[in-house]
User: What shape does this take?
Amino acid sequence: MMSHEAVVMLAKDTLLPQAQTEWTRLKELDGWLRWDPEKVSVPKDASQEHQALRDLSETPWLSLVVTTVAQQLHAELVRSGRTLEVDAIWAPWLRNRMPSRQRAIHRAALGYGYAYMMVLPGDTGSVMRGYSPCDLYAAYQDPVVDEYPMYAIWKRD
Assistant: This one.
């Protein structure tokens, strides 16, 4: 178990700078997803055709692709090759209202390349919440192999 001072130093010296770097990178992607990209500049002497092509090229395609695909992703049931009784697996999903919340997770994963699901113990069972990588930073010992992060920083408003 790490001491309080060690946790503060880890967060201050390592995790927060890494998180800020990642959140800055994601802010540019977020601009494209929410359609607030940087304006493409053309030379002052550009022809009307060049200006019209620039204006035509400024279309929210990324958001359209992400939204269209995210609308198609929806977990409706669970199956097991070991048992027909899947209520114990499916009940936490339903209790956490994930059928209506999962699209936000799919949208974040498609738009940014990844998203998170935090599962913690609760009074009546597990509590599941999805997070965009714009709100949560996770540090892995080996990001390619590790299934679970070593540390996570959650940005709360």
Remarks:
- The two ends are 28 Å apart (CA to CA).
